[in-house]
Specification:
globular, mainly alpha, 83% helix, Growth Hormone, Chain: A
């Protein structure tokens, strides 16, 4: 086996290790995410409050990513930051089973989002070092499909818990088992790959490239127009499209589609570049009219389009950043990207939650327009991204 083949094999091994970590973690918090909207509603929250909590969690988490990304670049403490972030995630979700009001549940949701934000940039730097050996699109796509496998299983566990008790709350207690699995898998990954992230100490880029800034602005418009599943799920329940236990099953199906399409879009991204992401945005924009203006059958199609759009993002957006930013600046780059994404997600979610009670047509128009603006901006960046590779 040549040295290059050994490096590729080691890189694939690390991606799989980190994928197992994400599998357990996504079982935990995506299981919770599949039911948090209806759960908050059962606890007395309005749909505007639900949208505000969802968006606020993303925004606060985004602000922390700006800090944690720069901290990761300065300290190179990628593993420590990653472990702290995962630790917060896996504590907050099982605790949802023991709250008595929607405000306490909202605080835990925000804590979980904050933990995800803390570890996000550091984890992505570790991952991007390995994806450089196998293709950034393929590497991030492979990680995503393992990540989304957990995101399929988690909602199924929640659905089983809901069917058993006919309540959302007790089902969250079941998440303690994948939560513990997350931390065990993370420790094993650290032991097996102790030198991961060391190449960032070789400074090769002093500033972020100019193309990076319009890139994250385009990503911000995409986030602004991307509907949160909690709003879709609450709308479906209000219209009585599906039984309570079906909502987590829909989310599980969405995560399966997300994982599969992330691997496909990631492979295609390595070959065709940003055009792959643009096609995914066009598909995701369809989720809004289908979900809010149609009936039960259209709702299922809406979730499929929504999940396909997520797959395109998972297989393309971080890969695009890794192509143009060197290892020593990727913590900051992923932090800025996630920060802009989170703030714009909050603003878009708040706007669409407010529009929900005013006009569904206005909600759909807002979201579709923001996503199409993002698609046009990414298209205009196509040649500049190619020259940076």
């Amino acid at each position: 086996m040549t040295a290059a083949e050994q490096k590729r094999r080691t890189a694939l091994g690390f991606i799989v290790c980190l994928g197992i970590v994400s599998l357990f973690a996504d079982m935990t918090y995506e299981g919770a995410h599949s039911a948090i909207g209806p759960y908050l509603q059962d606890l007395g929250a309005s749909i505007f409050a639900i949208g505000l909590v969802s968006g606020l969690g993303e925004m606060l988490g985004a602000s922390l990513r700006l800090f944690s990304g720069r901290l990761a670049d300065r300290t190179h403490a990628y593993w420590t930051i990653t472990m702290l972030g995962y630790g917060m995630n896996v504590i907050a979700v099982p605790a949802l089973a023991f709250v008595g009001n929607w405000k306490a549940a909202a605080a835990l949701v925000i804590a979980e989002r904050t933990g995800k934000a803390l570890r996000g940039p550091a984890r992505d730097v570790l991952l991007s070092e390995a994806t450089a050996e196998v293709g950034h699109g393929f590497g991030f796509g492979l990680h995503s499909i393992m990540d989304q496998t957990g995101a399929v299983i988690g909602p199924l566990v929640i659905a089983a818990g809901v069917m058993k008790t006919n309540h959302f709350g007790p089902a969250f207690a079941w998440m303690i088992f994948p939560a513990l699995g997350t931390m065990v898998a993370l420790v094993v990954a650290r032991i097996l790959h102790p030198s991961q992230g060391s190449s960032a100490r070789a400074v090769t880029q002093l500033v972020l490239p100019k193309v990076f800034w319009p890139y994250i602005v385009a990503a911000g418009f995409l986030a602004c127009g991307y509907i949160d599943f909690t709003i879709l799920a609450t709308h479906f329940e209000r219209r009585h499209f599906f039984a309570k236990e079906v909502i987590p099953l829909l989310y599980a199906g969405a995560m399966a589609v997300n994982g599969l399409t992330a691997l496909i879009f990631g492979r295609l991204f390595d070959r065709f570049g940003i055009l792959v992401l643009v096609s995914g945005i066009v598909i995701s924009a369809l989720s809004l009219p289908l979900g809010f203006l149609g009936g039960p059958a259209a709702a299922i199609a809406s979730v499929a389009c929504w999940a396909t759009g997520l797959g395109a993002q998972d297989g393309s957006l971080r890969a695009g950043i890794a192509q143009v930013v060197s290892m020593n600046k990727r913590g900051s780059a992923f932090g800025y990207y996630n920060g802009v994404w989170g703030v714009m997600w909050f603003l878009g979610t708040a706007a669409m939650s407010g529009l929900y009670g005013y006009s569904l047509l206005a909600l759909v128009g807002f979201g579709v327009a923001a996503q199409l603006i993002a698609a046009v901006m990414f298209l205009r960046l196509r040649s500049r991204l190619v020259t940076q590779q």
